[in-house]
Amino acid sequence: MTKSPTRIILILTSSLLLIAGCLSAADVAKIKWKIHDAERPLPKVVKPPQSNPQAQAEKPPSDALVLFDGKDLSKWVATDGGKVNWKVENGVLTSMPKGDIQTKEGFGDCQLHVEWRTLGKGHGNSGFYFMALYELQVYESFQYKETIYADGQAAAIYGQYPPLVNACRDTEQWQTFDVIFHRPHFDEGGKLLRAATMTVLHNGVLVQDHAVLTGPTSHKQRPPYKKHAAKLPLLIQYHGDPLQFRNIWIRPLEKQE
Q1: Which of 14, 60, 100, 135 could serve as 127's disulfide partner, Cβ 3.0–4.6 Å?
Q2: What is the spatial distance between Cα 237 and Cα 257, in angstroms, rounded to a whole number?
Q3: Is residue 20 in some structural domain?
Q4: pLDDT (tens digit per residue) in 41-51
Q5: Of residues 163, 168, 140, the one with CA closest to residue 46
Q6: Looking at the structure, do residues 132 and 245 belong to the same domain, yes or no?
Q7: Residue 92 and residue 60 share a domain
Q8: Is 237 within the bounds of a domain?
């Protein structure tokens, strides 16, 4: 189908705004797909590099802050500020009922590495929230055995961008996320100067390529940006399904004062 000149201009304009990293409410309204749109095509399935579940995890970079090394949860609190009740056993963290957990320390620009696996119970639903606001989705998406809208698949920026491809491994196999996150910037009056961006490798496969976030992520909503602190906690969601995590480390990328 031949695109009209007007449609071509709109596409080019939207692309340029995304590249510039500055999105207004009007720009968000031009996005083709509705949030959680059932008609949005599912990402193509690709086979990621084969994993070796017995392999020793690589050591993090020397300047990384280790958030979970398999021993304790000293870097974490419950989101109400109380003690974390998730289970640590045999070097693995298992999510448990009664809430999300978040880091004691806040982060802005960062590089995050985390390994996770679903256990075949429920939908394997969880997520990593950068700055407790911007979610990278975790889900049982191997071969689409658990179905959900395209922008809710594993490695989706929830409600905004499906992964470029589906690089999930099967249930109970360890998976990796390697993420580069850049925080949004605001002026003194709260005006957005630069939107947040996210680049994601899922099991070594590029699935988000410097995606420009439209604002915080939310279910069936695209809320606008609101000015917030330059550093906020990393949050791991408990969504009713038990999952396991290991080898979590982060490298702050902001210039040190």
Answers
A1: 135
A2: 31
A3: yes
A4: 898 888 777 66
A5: 168
A6: yes
A7: yes
A8: yes
